[in-house]
Amino acid sequence: MTAFQTAVCRLVRRCPRGKVISYGGVAAIAGNPRAARAARAVGAIMRDLPDGTDVPWWRVINSRGEISHRDIGHGPAIQRKLLEREGVRFGGSGRVDWERYGWSGE
DNA sequence: GAGATGACGGGCT
DNA sequence: AAGCCCGCCATCT
What we know:
It is built from 5 helices and 2 strands; from the N terminus they run αβααβαα. By secondary structure, the protein is mostly helical. It has a two-stranded parallel ribbon with strand order 1-2. The protein binds a DNA duplex (13 and 13 nucleotides) through residues 2, 4-5, 22-24, 27, 32, 34-48, 57, 60-64, 67-70, 72, 75-76, 79.
């Protein structure tokens, strides 16, 4: 475990149910000054999380408020269901209301 | 240490 | 609106 991974995981674990945050946001709150760029690294960490982890990785989405994964097919469906189960509503364009569900680290 | 990689972001077409 | 491209970061080879 690197220091960066530890910081990111600790932060995401604090994200409350029914809330979401962007990859860039995680990097920023985790203390990375180049958040917009470090976002990629955050994604890599989420990707490597094992099943049964205590890190709510599904609450981490892209800056547009949608489930990204760039270009996958069925992966997003699982994440979306997990979020909807917590009360997060998706708009017609498949996006969440950032103002309503966004988390800023409190 | 150099090159490749990708759950990203932002800007341009 | 949808897609493409480029830049940067942490990691892995």
